[in-house]
Amino acid sequence: MGSFQLEDFAAGWIGGAASIIVGHPLDTVKTRLQASTNYGSTLSCIRTVYRRESVFGFFKGMSFPLASIAVYNSVVFGVFSNMQRFLSQHHARESEASRSHTLSDLLLASMVAGVVSVSLGTPVDLIKIRLQMQTQPFQEGNLGLKPRAVALGVQPVYQGAVHCIATIVRTEGLAGMYRGVGAMLLRDVPGYCLYFIPYVFLNDWITPEACAGPSPWAVWLAGGLAGAISWGTATPMDVVKSRLQADGVYLNKYKGILDCISQSYRKEGLKVFFRGITVNTVRGFPMSAAMFLGYELSLQALRGDHTVTSP
């Protein structure tokens, strides 16, 4: 089965939807910890969000990523799986059934998936972060605001995802939808290498040689561990990306990646780049476990297989 396979895209969509539902509450906490200085710790952030906005505050901005990130994951998993399959067969000159995973094939396929993910994911992440951050008490967290921001008081800038997109395009142009794209590229290319490669090798290691494919339990464990590794190591650049994308609602603090890194380090020290690492790692496990399990089980159903098949 060396041909281009659409089932990978459909299975990626299902897995993506599952991961958003599982991971969005902690994603909201992660975003606020990274883009604001108002919270002392993860638990403090959780308590503050719950006290001010109730449980619904944790699901703020979820509708847009649920609709869009599912498609985004569909493309990422489809690109990775088809690219890895093509490279494996091209280099090994053997059938898919007997091919082995090589590090070089997985590395290149992961990098391609990472580049593709940035082109699709930057606008999605931007909208999500803007919607998650707009209820921040900016009077406490941001000084030297424009008169317009002061006049807004606690009124939300955006009324929803569509209004957020229209406002950004109107005030910042189409390029505004790709704010933070450089930081996202530096986060996602290595991030996907540390996402797919550990998953594949952990799956191979957990699954006995006598088995035709990994069990759902192996997929869940390998996927969760891969997600924790990927998100934990991506935290420093994720902090920079979150700050760049949250910037510009009321004022522009940063001129670019290096300026954001410089200002953040000067004001808050090295520890700022590890802000949210705990919630990132903890959130990475269930999100990725749901992502890979949803992907593998739906792929199994679509193909009519009786065993789970790794990407």
UniProtKB/TrEMBL annotation:
Predominant location category: mitochondrion
Protein name listed in UniProt: Solute carrier family 25 member 48
Gene Ontology MF term list: transmembrane transporter activity
Keywords: Membrane, Mitochondrion, Mitochondrion inner membrane, Repeat, Transmembrane, Transmembrane helix, Transport
Family statement drawn from the similarity comment of this UniProt entry: Belongs to the mitochondrial carrier (TC 2.A.29) family.
Annotated compartments: Mitochondrion inner membrane
Domain of life where this protein originates: Eukaryota
SUPFAM superfamilies linked to this entry: Mitochondrial carrier
Gene3D superfamilies found in the cross-reference section: Mitochondrial carrier domain
Regions that span the bilayer: none
Solcar repeats: 3-86, 101-205, 214-301
Membrane-protein topology: Multi-pass membrane protein
One Gene Ontology cellular component annotation held by this UniProt entry: mitochondrial inner membrane
